[in-house]
Amino acid sequence: MKKNNFLHKHQKTLAPLLSLVLIILITASVTPGFLSIRMVDGHLFGSLLDILHRATPTALVALGMAVVIGTRGIDLSVGAVIAISGAVTAVLTVNTDWPVGLVILCALGTGMLCGLWNGILVSGFNIQPIVATLILMVAGRGIAQMITEGQIVTFHSDVLDAIGNGYFLAFPIRVWIAIGMIVLTVLVMRKTALGLFIEAVGANVRASRLVGIEARLLVLSAYVFSGLCAAMSGIILAADIRGADANNAGLWLELDAILAVVLAGASLAGGRIYLLLTIVGVLIIQTLTTAILTSGLPVQYNLVVKATIILAVLLVQSPKTRQWISDFFTKKKRAANSRTGKGSIKP
Amino acid sequence: MINERNLPILATLLVFILLYGFGMYEYKGFRDTLVFSNLLTDNAFLIITAIGMTFVILSGGIDLSVGSMIAFIGVLMAYLITNTGIHPLFAIGIALIVGVAFGAIMGVIIAFFEIQAFIVTLAGMFLFRGLAYLINLDAVPIDHPFITGLYDIYVPLPGRGGLTFIAMAMLVLLALGILIARRTRFGMSVYALGGDSHSAALLGVPVKKTIIKIYALSGFYSAMSGVIFAIYTGSAYPLAAVGVELDAIAAVVIGGTLLTGGVGYVFGTFLGGMIQGIIQTLITFDGSLNSWWTKLAVGGLLLFFILLQKGIVYWVKKRSAT
User: Any chain B CB within 8 A of the CB of A135?
Assistant: First the structure.
């Protein structure tokens, strides 16, 4: 009975973790050597490392997306912001002799400016997040093309090369960057009141304002943070291919990031986010992609398998399904009580 | 007295006239009917998709799967015609049924599992694109006398312009969309749902059934758009129409439909799609501007219309308060 309670209490946490483990195990049974990790020249190599390496840009974006979704928002513009910050990185590296640090700061600043724009539209003008960020999603790639003047700008810089493909303590540097960012975010969100405030704003803007939370500023900073994360991802992606491609950099990354947040059990209706589980969600998506590639299945199955599994996870995780299952077993509508009356309190 | 609800669509009409007028003033070639009829033909598939999207957005939802659906239907049609050798008309029929069925399935998931439309149609977007890859990885020509025959239908207009089959099909689908929105019980339910789904349910609108029908209708329109796109290009390609969902949403918003649902017109969407086409044409006529200006202009227009709608809503509230 006690064990059952534990499962019941943590089923939201366990579902994504179990999915990840299952996917890794199934892939390992199909693909020989999937789990093996080798040490070559002080660098770790293997499929699992490859997954981490490739998941980094999405993980960074998803981190920002999770915070934004926590405020009951959504940021569709991250792909465009990736393109813009990548373009800034490339153009500044090629056209100026500024130190790399300054170039990176400029790219990060550009991303935060983009976030600020989104944030002002959402919290200043009260425009629906999906619409407000759609503007930058549509126009952003145009801006990126303007910066690169429609060309694919290639560049060379030792520091940026290291960020893209270098190693530190046997791990890829970009993975370290992502880990640092994740730890920092989790600390700030969970050890300070900020996380609580953001979730409060997402759950109920009016109520949070009544208890004295500066809702507008919080929402604004959530979008700035998302812009910063997207810019980091943009720098890494540009450093990876040593070039900026305004048309294709970060294309559809926003969708993967949103999926990861939702797979982690967060509701798009805001109010509850799971930062670490979001990273698990990113790993699920990346493992699926890598698994399909390494299993020898033709590439064209990639999207179908991905979509089918995601749909299955969504259906199983949906509150309705859980309610039906629990209704079926208990015949009591316990779950129904927790769903009604939510958010209907009016002052 | 102008109803403030009609202000956005009037603004859309004004932007349309201003842009077109600017083109006629600036370029001699713009005054020919050829430009107008080309606008109808070249933007037909976008406008058809956007008509379906209008119903979804009017109900307060969103459909991200339309672009993939266009590609999937095109590839499916090409496969049916070239590999199984059935008549194109039959293939089009099957393709449309498949499109409606997939739309309805997404509607069922949205209505009965109460998962957000955004995520469900996002999964649908991946799924349809993937299914298109499964059928065919390359661009294939659709070389059938029936299809080329359709492409060749042409009703000359005064001037050098003329209506193609594609343009006429679009106009028919537009009329159909307007009729469904304004003259049927389903149309009323869509508006009611977008206005306030809770009140709509209390008033006896069959919410779940309506949601399923909405996504099925969007599936029908994007499948139809896939068919038109295949006729227009004479080929099918699994990477076709990438990003069309955004253009369609932009067309709906520029057309004056409120993204929160409940307010808007199908005809506005037609204008919204045409405005995007005019921007593109103007940039082509100019010759010195690059294609990225299209994206910036569409983004700027989106912002303008959203702020306009905000302003109107604010104004109406302030006025009704006093």
Answer: yes
